[in-house]
């Protein structure tokens, strides 16, 4: 978290855009820095932080990939439907 905060401060100081990149699977092609931005990779921030079985909600870090979340759901008797 501290490293992310530092890069955000640096980018703000230098007026450089940031492009967040989750698990970098390439499924959504979202991590494109076409205009000199800096890509911030979150693939090491890949933990599931909280799960509420009653509400069926999950709080996770940005590097959690779909397969990881699907596996977690299955382990808890749930199904995480994804449509690409």
Automatic annotation (TrEMBL):
UniProt-recorded Gene Ontology molecular function terms: FAD binding
PROSITE patterns membership: FAD_PCMH (PS51387)
Alphabetical list of Gene3D superfamilies matching this protein: 3.30.465.10
Alphabetized InterPro entries for the sequence: FAD-bd_PCMH, FAD-bd_PCMH-like_sf, FAD-bd_PCMH_sub2, FAD-linked_OxidoTrans_Type4, Oxid_FAD_bind_N
Keyword field: FAD, Flavoprotein
Sequence ranges assigned to domain FAD-binding PCMH-type in this UniProt record: 1-84
Protein name: FAD-binding oxidoreductase
Species of the source: Pseudomonas aeruginosa
């Amino acid at each position: 978290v501290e490293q992310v905060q530092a890069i955000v401060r640096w980018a703000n100081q230098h007026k450089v855009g940031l492009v967040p990149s989750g698990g970098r699977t390439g499924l959504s092609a979202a991590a494109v820095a076409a205009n000199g931005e800096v890509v911030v990779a979150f693939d090491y921030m890949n933990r599931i932080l909280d799960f509420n079985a009653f509400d069926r909600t999950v709080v996770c870090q940005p590097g959690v990939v779909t397969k990881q979340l699907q596996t977690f759901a299955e382990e808890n008797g749930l199904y995480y439907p994804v449509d690409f």
